[in-house]
Amino acid sequence: MRHFLILDIGGTKTTAVVFNEEGTPITNFKVKPSRTYEGEDAVFQNTVEVAYEILAAAKITKEDIVGIGVAAPGPLDYKTGMIIDVPMMGWKNFPLGPKLCEEFGAPVFVENDGNLGALAEATIGVAKGEETVLYQTISTGCGGGIAINGKIFHGHSGFAGEFGHISINFAGPRCGCGGSGCFELYASGTAVTHRMRRDIKCGIKSLAFESIGYDPNKVDGKILAEAAEKNDPYAIDLLTQEGYYIGVGLSNLINMFDPDVIVLAGGMVKSDKYFWKSMMNEIKRHACFHVSEDRIRISQLNDQVVAYGAYVMAKEAIDGTL
Ligand SMILES: [Zn+2]
Fold this sequence. Notes:
It contains 10 helices and 13 strands. It is globular and about 60 Å long. The strands form 3 sheets. It has a 5-stranded mixed sheet, with helices on both faces. Helix 3 packs across helix 10 (305-321), helix 7 packs across helix 8 and helix 8 crosses helix 9. The protein has 322 residues and is of the alpha/beta class. The chain folds into 2 domains: 3-117 and 304-321, ATPase, nucleotide binding domain (Nucleotidyltransferase, domain 5, 2-Layer Sandwich), CATH 3.30.420.40; 129-300, 2-Layer Sandwich (Nucleotidyltransferase, domain 5). The chain starts with a strand and ends with a helix.
């Protein structure tokens, strides 16, 4: 039996899992903190450790591994497995793919998480079999990816699908990417918690804030979702506004790609029932043509979507070499 080692290295946590060749995980999805900000060797060593732990859990050794699929933060060069510059990892021109290959003795395929999300959804997820699939995460940040005919669309230099940095307000605030008014600055979980902090300081009352004693340091998307469940007007208003931003962002993608399906994923998307209506209203207003609601879908692969995508990538790459 051939096995695939799958690693999803994120800013806060690293996930490891072993898949068999039928695409079934044969271990749990083991999650460990990434040791970000401790330097390039610490993050790499942490990755290697969690990989060996999952091999032990699968009761196999590295000799049983035929391919390694890795999701990593970008920018990266998917052709060489080189991480170009990720300051929080301390990785600058870091040869992640070659180093993992040296350690485990199997071919390594490295890709950014947004692209892998698109690949997973287009091959085994809620957009399975669809021709043009866009993937948009709405989480701490807003990543994205494009899959066309079941393959990742990379663009000229591998950076296609940076949907979080489409500007929805050219006169808006500056973004870390160098642009201004980026989608991520309005729609991400970070943007929402920023607004909640500001509203606490402005004396706005909400069940969401009561649950944390009006402490601005404790705000997160979860308290907002819980307050919305209790019909708190502030929470429902804020999520309705979130739908407005998401709808404006998605209508740009719709006008550009006329995609068969857009899949939404990430922490904020769990509150979709509160933002769906305002999101669809904005899509109707801004899209140049009619888009039926069933073309916007919510990921069902949840936190595991990227790992599934990394498996599909590694499996296809290995099968392609046979
Ligand atoms: Zn930006």
